[in-house]
């Protein structure tokens, strides 16, 4: 029998649809990613735990130490076995300064969403690359801004890397209370090379701040590193869309 031109019955169309759906399911199953290997467990994967370690940190007092699970790896510090609470900033984000043991590195744990801050940091890294490619210099120093690692933990908590040998403007003012306007000059000990780095990094700070719309700069979030580099911290919530921006 010649079936050309004969439309399939409703029953046939349903059966064909079922077979196609079955094929889709088979393809999806074949392409499904295997479960992530959690041995050792990444710090960022630990959010799946019923009680993540960082929730326990907020129950600790300054000076207390928390041993981490042996299979847990800190980013860039795989040998970290424990953390010690060194400071409670008593901020709205309940920020805690943590010392990684046995290393001497430090991080800040926040009860806040740091994803916007991490996005801004990615922009700053890209700007550093462009300045380097174009050989942009001030006082013969390459224009660069200090960047650091920021990790989001479950979207409600975050880790921020601490830059060693750096202090904020408020701390410098306390070191030189009678000469507050000259605090940076005194902190750098009038070293010409450090002052050149200060000039170049200040240009980077101002240009980057304008480009991404940074606001709310004050003595607590403007930092100075011992080698003269000026940089900004805690800028996620202050990066806003500008009506008058470029």
TrEMBL record:
Renumbered to this chain, the signal peptide range is: none
One cellular-component annotation, GO:
cytoplasm
Q: Which GO terms describe its molecular function?
A: 1-phosphatidylinositol-3-kinase activity; 1-phosphatidylinositol-4-phosphate 3-kinase activity
The encoding gene is PIK3CG
- Keywords of this entry: Kinase, Transferase
Query: What is the name of the protein in this document?
Result: Phosphatidylinositol 4,5-bisphosphate 3-kinase catalytic subunit gamma isoform
The PI3K/PI4K catalytic domain is annotated at 82-246
Keyword Transferase appears in the UniProt entry: yes
Q: Which residues form a coiled coil?
A: none
**Does the record carry Ribosomal protein as a key word?**
no
One GO term of the biological process aspect: phosphatidylinositol 3-kinase/protein kinase B signal transduction
């Amino acid at each position: 029998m010649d079936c050309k031109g004969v439309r399939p019955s409703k029953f046939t169309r349903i059966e064909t649809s079922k077979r196609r759906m079955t094929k889709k399911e088979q393809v999806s199953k074949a392409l499904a990613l295997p479960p992530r290997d959690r041995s050792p467990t990444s710090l960022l994967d630990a959010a799946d735990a019923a009680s993540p370690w960082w929730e326990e940190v907020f129950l600790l007092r300054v000076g207390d130490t928390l041993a981490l699970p042996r299979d847990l790896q800190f980013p860039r510090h795989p040998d970290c076995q424990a953390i010690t609470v060194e400071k409670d900033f008593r901020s709205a984000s309940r920020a805690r300064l943590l010392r990684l043991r046995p290393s001497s590195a430090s991080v800040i744990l926040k009860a806040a969403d740091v994803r916007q801050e991490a996005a801004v940091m990615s922009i700053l890294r890209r700007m550093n690359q462009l300045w380097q490619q174009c050989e942009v210099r001030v006082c013969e120093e390459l224009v660069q801004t200090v960047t650091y690692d920021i990790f989001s933990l479950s979207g409600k908590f975050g880790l921020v890397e601490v830059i060693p040998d750096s202090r904020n403007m408020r701390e410098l003012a306390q070191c030189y209370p009678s000469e507050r306007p000259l605090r940076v000059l005194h902190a750098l000990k009038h070293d010409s090379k450090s002052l050149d780095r200060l000039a170049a990094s200040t240009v980077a700070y101002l240009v980057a701040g304008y480009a991404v719309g940074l606001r709310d700069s004050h003595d607590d979030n403007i930092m100075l590193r011992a080698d003269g580099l000026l940089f900004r911290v805690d800028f996620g919530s202050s990066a806003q869309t500008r009506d008058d921006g470029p």
